[in-house]
Amino acid sequence: MPNFFKDNKDLQFTLNNLEMKEVAALREDNYKFAKKFDSAPVDLDDAMDNYNRVLEIVGGVCGDNIEPRSRQVDQEGPDFTDGVVTYHPLTKKNLKDIQLADVNGVMLPHQYGGLNFPVTVYTMMTEMVSRADGSLQNLFGLQDIAETISEFGTDEQKADFLPRFASGEVDGAMDLTEPDSGSDLQSVRLRAYQDEKGNWFLNGMKRFITNGCAQVHLVLARSEDGTVDGRGLSMFICEACPELVVRRIEDKLGIHGVATCELQYNDVPALLCGQRRRGLTRYVMSLMNGARVAISAQALGIAEAAYREARKYAEEREQFKKTIDQFPAVYDMLVKMKTKTLAARTLLYETTRIVDLRNGYTHLVAHTPAKDLDPEIRKKQKYYNKVAAVLTPMAKACCTEISNEVTYDAIQIHGGTGFMRDFNVERFYRDARITNIYEGTTQLQVVAAIGGVIQRTNDVRIAEFASLPYEGKLLRLKKKVDKLHEQQLKAVKYIAEKKDPSYHDLRARSLVEMETYIFVGYMMLRDALKDSERELLAERYILDAEPEFKKRYLEVTGGDVTIIDNHRDIIDY
To answer: 241-248: which pairs have CB atoms within 8 A and are 24 or more residues apart?
Structure first.
């Protein structure tokens, strides 16, 4: 089987052209860790060599082991008997292979047995695992739980849990959702209370918990009696015990390899993680930012798998005495699938680089005495925090919607056979469908991103892209994107001057999608400067984006507030 890193030249291009110098230096404390830990790199070249080497190892595991097992895992799934979840034997083998590859603590610090890799590299691993088996990502991709303990837990909690996560001894679950609290986490009711000795206990229900059978759980619970909003919620750590009961596992459309559980907490012993009252406002927000990136990578990996299957089938399937990839209607679909997948990857890894910079400067600010802190460091921390806040939801919306489109088209290219379970594309289609729902629906990603779009947070980076030395075709394409940017500024001004919150909310998705076309368009041109083979992809993306942008522009600037009432009338008809 192919190595899923070595056979993906776009993923290799991305890693080698992402400007990782600043990211790696921040992660490794300017390579001071090399004096303490043998595994730590001594300079950028050493760090990049480490990243490439481990990505090749993971790519090999994905291609040789995980992907060949994926169909059987999907068909048979985990077992649930007498309150006990048992993962499929092949899933257990996958987890063992990941453990042997030593990538259970990818982002954890060296001192706890982790690799201390940046989010960007971990996300690439997540994409490859998802290409091999979308459901396995929901186990491999829960490393943000350990990261949260690393960032906000006590020294004792870190010393206890992090080495176990890094070695693969324990796995984790993020217990947020409740039967009556889906996206509205402020209404969480699971109760946290203390006994007379100050020990914490949890009592209540959680639902739709991915890997809810895990050994270690991060739990959002109401710690403050009499509260009804997010200010009464805290984050807790608990471990699997008789008092934590798995009541059932869900029978899902896709992602069959992982158990999605309903949990009952019967006075479960727990530890407070971080400060009281900050469970939702800080810790869950941090978790969700990581989850947005992880699900974006999951969606992208599934899209990559679907595109490759569709292309292979089209090259082999003969109709009317020629392979169907020679028919314009089919190869045009393949070109769109390829272009969309590459565009999603371009946005995702620009986002992860910004997240890495935000994390690095946030860590510096938090661990440097105020009197010693360079004002430039604080300025960068604030800037990257703002940019990450708009790019992470943009990336999640873009990658997951594209994944649904690509998997849909993969079935179409297969025709009737694609509807059959004999072919992988029907699984990709089912697995992709959840990605634009969980960890925040696309509609909620729009809510998260629109503030930054209105405030023009991306304009600094857009100006950097626009100032690059384009010539010839790239210059002509750049002028097209410049024009879209000018229109976006007019659309934002139009919304601001209208001063109608309902109309603002109605057109928010159009504005966010318009922003995505612009931002990705510039990045595609940037990458084409480094690789001339990417010119055609940049051209196709921009030419396809142009009419889609204009349609949304007219929706935004040509509307009237009465359209909202008209929409409601349509619903009521």
So the answer is: 241/268, 241/269, 243/267, 243/268, 243/269, 244/217, 244/268, 245/83, 246/80, 246/83, 246/84, 246/85, 246/212, 246/213, 247/83, 248/80
Cβ–Cβ under 8 Å, residues 122 and 348: no
For 221, counting Cβ atoms within 10 Å of its Cβ (0-12 exposed, 13-18 middle, 19+ buried), the class is: buried
Q: Which is nearest to 55 in space by CA: 20, 91, 88? A: 20
Helix residue ranges per DSSP H, 141-255: 144-152, 155-167
Q: How far apart are CA 280 and CA 265, in angstroms?
A: 19
Name which of 148, 33, 55 is nearest 103 in CA terms. 55
Question: Virtual CA dihedral for 144, 145, 148, 150, nearest 10 degrees?
Answer: -100
Torsion of CA 79, 82, 85, 90, to 10 degrees: -40
Task: Name beta bridge partners: 239.
Answer: 216
Q: Cα(343)–Cα(436) distance, rounded to whole angstroms?
A: 17
pLDDT tens per residue across span 185-223:
888 999 999 999 999 999 999 999 999 999 999 999 999
Q: 263 by DSSP, 3-state: which?
A: strand
* Domains contained in the chain, CATH given: 172-279 (2.40.110.10), 458-564 (1.20.120.470)
The predicted-structure confidence for 375-387, as pLDDT tens digits, reads as follows 999 999 999 999 9
For 16-27, what is the HEC assignment?
HCCCCHHHHHHH
Vertex 35 angle, CA 31 and 38, to 5°: 95
